[in-house]
Each structure stands twice: as structure tokens, then as C-alpha cells.
Amino acid sequence: MPITTWRERVEAENQLQRDLQAEMSASARRRAAAFVEGVAELGSKSAVAREIGIDVSAVRKSIREYGTTPPAPDSTNK
Q1: What are the angstrom distances between the C-alpha of 23 and each of 6, 64, 65?
Q2: Global pTM exceeds 0.85
């Protein structure tokens, strides 16, 4: 088992955190796109929220913050 320095371990964890943050951002964009599709199907943000049992403000916020840009390609299919 190779021994690493604390600096190497910190850098590895920093990279992991950057990767995870990128995944979270991509997930948020895909979720917002799904909400937008739900609004098109059901007619309102309120209807989408009722359908999945969440507060309408979560739907609004997601669409406002992430719904204007197209979702990134799924990075798990490398």
C-alpha cells in the first residue's frame, strides 16, 4: 500500500470535492429540466409540486436557478 503525504491526500480530497460539486450542478440542471417538462405536461408549477409531493417554491427555485440552461450530458456514461 503506497504511503502518501498529507498534502497529497488533501489535494486528492480537494479534487474529489470539485468532481462531486460538478456532479451536483449537473444533477440540479437535469432536475430543473424535468420540472420544466412536468410544467409543460401538467400546466403549472403547482401541479408539478402536488404530483411529486414537494413544495411549489422548490419547483420555482429549481427552474429559476437551473432551468434556463440545457442540461449537461450525463457524465456517468463515459
Answers
A1: 26, 19, 16
A2: no
